[in-house]
Amino acid sequence: MTWLGVDVGGTFTDLVLFDEEAQDIRILKTPSTPKDQSEGILTGIRRLGFAPEALTRFVHGTTVATNTALERDGAKLAIVTTAGHKDVLVVGKGNRTVMYNIKAPPVRPLVRRSDCYEVRERRRADGSVQTPLNEDDVHAVAERLAADGVEAVAICFLNAYADDSHERRCAEILFERLPGVVVATSAEVLPEYREFERFSTTALNAYVAPRLRRYVGRLRGQLRNAGLRADVSIMTSNGGSLPASRVEALPILSMLSGPAGGVIAASAIGTAAGYPNLITCDMGGTSTDVCLLRGGEYGMTTEGRVGVFPVKIRQIDIHTVGVGGGSIASRAGGVLSVGPRSAGSMPGPAAFGRGGTEPTITDANVVLGRIGTDVPLGGEIQLDLEAARSAVGRLGEDVGLETEAMADGILRIATVQLAMAIKEVSILRGIDPRDFTLLPYGGAGALHAAAIAEELGMRQVLVPPLPGNFSALGLLIADLRRDLVQTRIARTAEVTADDVRARLADLVAAGTEELDQAGFPAERHRFVASLDMRYSGQSFELSVPVALDVAEIGEIEKAFAEVYRARYGGLTAAAVEIVSYRVAAWGLSEKLTLPQVRAEGRSAEAAETGRRPIAFGGAARDVPVLARDRMPVGHTFSGPALVEEDGASTVVPPGWSAALDPVGCLVLSRI
Amino acid sequence: MTIDPITLEVLTQALISAVREMRATVCRTASSVAIYDAKDFSCGLFAPDSQVVAQSEDIGSHVVPMPWTVQVAMEKLGHTLKPGDAILVNDPYTGGTHLNDVTVIYPVFAGDRLIFFPAVRAHWADVGGAVPGSMSGKATEIYQEGIRIPPIKILEEGRHNEAAFELLLANMRLPEERLGDLNASFAACRVAEMRIREICDKYGVDQLLEAVRIDLDRAEARMRACISALPDGEYRYEDYLETYMGGRFEPLLLPLTLKIEGDRMIADFTGASPQVPFPVNSTAAVSSASVFIAVKSIFDPAAPLNQGSFRPIEVIAPPGSIVNVQRPAPAGSHGEIRKRVIATMVGALSQVAPDKVAGDLCRTSFHNLLGGYDPVTGREWVHYEWSAGGNGGFAENDGPDVMAPIDWGDLVTVQSSEVIEMRMPLLVESSRVSQDSGGAGTTRGGCSMERVIRVLAPEARYSLLSDGAVLPAFGVLGGMPGCPVGAWTEREGEMLDFDTPGKIAGHPVERDGAVVIRSAGGGGYGDPTERPAERVAEDVREGYVSSAAAYHLYGVVLDQRGEVDGVATAAQRKRLVGSRHSFRAVPVADGFEAGRVSKRRICRLHPSDAAKLDVEEDDIVEFDTRKAAALRGWVRLDSGISPGTVPLDEAGLAILLASAGEPIEIRRLDARSRPAVGLAVAAE
Predict the structure, then answer these.
(1) What is the predicted ipTM?
(2) Under CATH, which architecture does the B582-668 domain have?
(3) Do B400 and A97 touch (CB under 8 A)?
(4) What are the Acetophenone carboxylase-like C-terminal domain coordinates in residue numbering (chain A) (predicted)?
(5) What is the structure's pLDDT at B56?
(6) Which residue from A minimizes the CA distance to B420?
(7) Got the DSSP string for A49-93?
(8) CB-based contact A70:B363 (threshold 8 Å)
């Protein structure tokens, strides 16, 4: 029985194959094929060369939904909405796109105004009918949509979170009149209040659906042709996985598909290694994702966005900054900066030799010898030291620095920016990062981790096994997870514990159905409840964990007070409101476990494969290069050193030491 | 002292990071919802003589005036400051904005050398005064707006100034909450102090101060380079605040003379209307800050905000005028002066850098209040609405629709209909982009927002404090004005208008009656007959422009399928251009007419010319040469004027970039403001 995790990123497709009986892990990196991601996946599968019939699990992290939204390459979409409210998505929240600029460009909404159709219907905030649904209007719209050849329709009615029967009836009619067209209602995608966020989430969902469905269909076909019969699961933004058929129905759930896998792996492997308090730093080619875990648990948020569009789906609280290996260093108006412009994967850094001429973080690393040029990157890209040197050198000349000093400077500025991203999830939320261990992964994370840790006063860095394929690893650790929500606003004085239990029970019932359908037996079901609550008059809610079998309202008020005090310090005398009810439904799955490190072939002597001049703080030093797969467990190597492995390199600066622990994590400590 | 270019950027980032941390600290620890929820506060970091760091998330109207506050506080208390002291100030007359904005300034020392001031300005929900919330549209003196705090030491060498605490809190509603807000400001300043010390320990005080010096200098150098690129000279513009005195409309003049001398710029508001006993006056700090916001947004949008950019700019705001209010006039509603100052800067700069400016934007803060008592819930309710309008068109693009103007930072301006209906006995019947509200132009002004809000409670009261109800946003280079703000009521299909547009106090609205509120459209940019006809057709297809406006304003004729009829369009455009009325400018000494307080520009026309233009006495017209921003005046019929001519004073000619004898186009200001005329309700 084997399991396969496949994470498709912008530059590389990462595969992790796990043999359950042999407890053996194999990894592979192959260039991504952006036009049709399934091609790269099949190439990877062929190169791994395993017995197709033995594969029982296929879990996939995909950027198809996200890219479709970001590249604005989705369906021909129409919105059907309540009369009087066609401009919700056009106007948004009326805030500025660019500060202090009289030439702020207009926002380009997801749908043109002329593709938003109004029908007569109206509900009040309590769900009661103000105006019944005018079905003639719906039929008239259906005719227009059929004539226009739309591919997807989002039905977005005001106050539909309180009662969605109008939306459902409208969907019925459109479904019948428009065969083959994706039809989604706002209450089905996100039954929460605040129309802009709900409509935006619903519209994005419909916008990306046709392309995602085509992709999943193609992938299934290709896998079948290759003799693979395992069901396909897709990683979702909340850190769980879902059967692909569910993600086809609700593609919006997969917006953070890739980054979520890494956080799940960090949680499992960090905890197993004895480091439950972690800050992850997933540095790739164009951006870096940061997430804070306490006691192995990551936070959740509903404040996500894709590009400028809010996505209110509950997702892992991951903070992203536009700094990655491909970020370009430049000077304008006297100010030297790194990013946010990126060379991406095409042309990529100058060192890639694909026509890039501006210096990037990767080029700085190549110039300083931190990335070796002997072995091609991902088995394919031969790095060009001279191209990197001349790109960095040109900027150095402009600034008045030698090439090496310029390269070092680029890395220092990048370090400050990456440290800022970590401050964002720690210090700015009142959490001291020095109480945490930094866990880097992604192609570039381990190169910069020690420097970032130093900048923040963190004393420990944990480089996990397989850092270059870490997100794919997480795919084979994730449980199934579905988050269910229902908005019902009322003051706590106006609801009873019976009401709360009944509403949570409804959500549990919906979750149970979902888990049953995915084939999870009842003993593998888990449900966790929380309420979104606030003081009356506030506009933002706090997530308050509660028991499913709430005994009295006082319990809930007390739980709210605790969360509120922890966040804001004091309490106020205002009335407390419950805004939304939430249940996370988990289907517990079998998990990949990391094998113990085998002792054979490992020793301090065998580990050192060579020496290379690497500059630290401007001075080049002859530094030992260590092969991670030959490092013995428990031996402490002193910095400066460079640890190399398939898909990643770890810099151990002077003043730091590195040692391999029994689970295969490389622990860097400040001496 | 030298510093390497990398350490310079590292230190710059470190200071920005310290301010971000201040901001997060205020959010986490403040007591009032307005601060931690609505983010109505700003943080900044100052060197003893200037502002070093402010944040882009901060509200420009808060943070940009802060240097004046610090400067005034330093003049008064600087020589006595010791470690552990903190200054508290909100006095508009000594560097403040309005009384609700309370500022804490916290000196940080290295040894006995004063090196930095972290400062927090937060909007306190109440600072005493006549009404809860302190801001009253009816205030005639500052004493009704709350307690004035001139710069005082609220902390002395780490000890609370107990007498001051007691006195202040005794004069405010909800004193515990205010104490919480004050402590949040202290906490934020202490965090900054800690970070500054860490930076000094690592890099040394001298290196840090050197980095600050270079940061300021390079911002200054960028701004000087921008100004140097402009031709020297004096450029002018004028605009008005709208008031009603005893029910009669009285525009208050705000004239600007902008001098460009080499790499310096002087914004001179000499001649501004005297201050008035209404809360529309503003302080020198606010007026100067508004000049800076305009300059920054026009010339140097990309770089982070610091005071270096503003060194080449001087502002002259005559004391006792609406731009530099003196005791005892009120200053509660300073937002309108901010918008007017920005507008005059845009108008003046349109004469010298037309490619850099945009049409006038949003025009007003547009404060709408609809509230009452809900017998179903037994609660009082108030809906506060400040929908943004359209921004001005500019060379590269149409102005954005419904978007917060440049002085509002990241403020959200469109509130969720579902939230409104959940909280209040109201039904938001429609919430739409208002067709034809954006000023026509080669690039169009952004459209505004029109909302119909129906009252479900037995009764409610509606108030509006707004400008831009009479004078809309102006266009540039021949662009047309946007539509003015509008507000009216509707019940059983009957529409009722107000006869003091923009100023409405407590107008009763019965159950099932609706209030319709429409924000201001942005000014157009360039001649509308030069807008590509295809883009006009698209605007019609998308509903931003009506086919009537396409025909009458843009000269675009569309066929039944909505496609451009090229031949008919060319003919209509020729007709439109040919039907413009021009008058020969005749120089006069004084182009103004005095009112009770201020004065307004008038347009003297021979009655036959007035008939040609279809205007009457007291109508508003635009003078235009299509070389810069349009100029406004009020019509006076005068048979003593030679037909075909119009008198213009020196300032008027300068604004239009015209000389005596040149033809000046005059057109009626066609304000689409009222759906129907009916019963009116006056308010002060």
Answers:
(1) 0.92
(2) Beta Barrel (2.40)
(3) yes
(4) 497-662
(5) 61
(6) A125
(7) ---GGGEEEEEEE--HHHHHHHTT----EEEEEETT-TTHHHHTT
(8) no
What structural domains does chain A harbor? Answer: 2-69+213-227 (3.30.420.40), 327-412 (no CATH), 480-587 (3.30.1490), 604-670 (no CATH)
Nearest to B357 among A102, A124, A130 (CB): A102
Nearest CA distance, A485 vs chain B (angstrom)? 17
Strands (E), B10-158: 41-47, 50-54, 86-89, 101-105, 108-110, 113-123, 152-156
Which of B379, B367, B376, B374 shows the shortest CA–CA distance to B460?
B374
CA A446 – CA A648 distance, rounded (Å): 7
Contact call for A113 and B433, based on CB within 8 A? yes
Q: Using CA atoms, how far apart are residues A522 and A545, in angstroms rounded to an integer? A: 23
Q: Which residue has the higher pLDDT, A262 or B34?
A: A262
pLDDT at A396 over 60: yes
Q: What sign does the CA torsion over A645, A650, A653, A659 have?
A: negative
- pLDDT, tens digit, for every residue of A570-587? 677 778 999 999 999 999
Closest Cα of chain A to B448: distance in Å? 10
Q: What's the whole-number mean pLDDT along residues B46-55?
A: 78
Which DSSP string corresponds to B112-137?
TEEEEEEEEEEE-S---SSSTTS--T
pTM: 0.93
Query: By the CB < 8 Å criterion, does A617 face chain B?
Result: no
Model pLDDT for residues B17-28, shown as the tens digit of each residue: 899 999 988 888
Token pair belonging to B222: 């960028």
Residue A131 sits at φ, ψ, to 5 deg, of -135, 125
CB atoms A413 and B13 under 8 Å: yes
**Rounded Cα gap, residues B298 and B357, in angstroms:** 6
pLDDT at B678 over 50: no
The residues with which B476 forms a beta bridge, in sequence order, are B525, B629
Contact at 8 Å (CB) between A471 and A61?
yes
Cβ–Cβ under 8 Å, residues B609 and B659? no
A194 in B contact zone (CB under 8 Å): yes
Helices B175-203 and B205-228: crossing angle in degrees, nearest 10, is: 100
pLDDT score, position A52: 87
Cβ–Cβ gap A83/B13 under 8 Å: no
Taking an 8 Å cut-off on Cβ atoms, the answer to whether A84 and B388 are in contact is no
What's the start-to-end Cα distance of chain A, in Å?
A: 44
- Cβ contact, residue pair A100, B297, below 8 Å: yes
Name the residue among B305, B428, B430 with its Cβ closest to that of A100. B305
- DSSP code per residue over A117-151: EEES-EE-TTS-EEE---HHHHHHHHHHHHHHT-S
Residues of chain B in contact with residue A102, where contact means CB-CB under 8 angstroms, are: 294, 297-298, 301, 346, 356-358, 361, 391-392, 394, 406
Task: Indicate the residue of A96, A535, A568 with minimum beta-carbon distance to B404.
Answer: A96
A67-82 confidence digits (pLDDT tens): 899 888 899 999 999 9
pLDDT band at B671 (very low <50, low <70, confident <90, very high): low
- Provide the shortest C-alpha distance from residue B168 to chain A (in Å): 21
Pick among A98, A101, A102 to test the B interface (most B CBs inside 10 A): A102
Which residue ranges make up each domain of chain B?
5-221, 533-578, 582-668
More confident: B378 or A562 = A562
SS3 A487: strand
A196 touches chain B (CB under 8 A): yes
Cis peptide before A359 (omega within 30 of 0): no
Which residue in the set B303, B412, B452 is minimally distant from A94, CB to CB? Answer: B412
Q: For chain A, positions 123-182, list CB contacts with chain B under 8 A.
A: 124-125, 130, 158-159, 161
CA-nearest residue of chain A to B522? A102
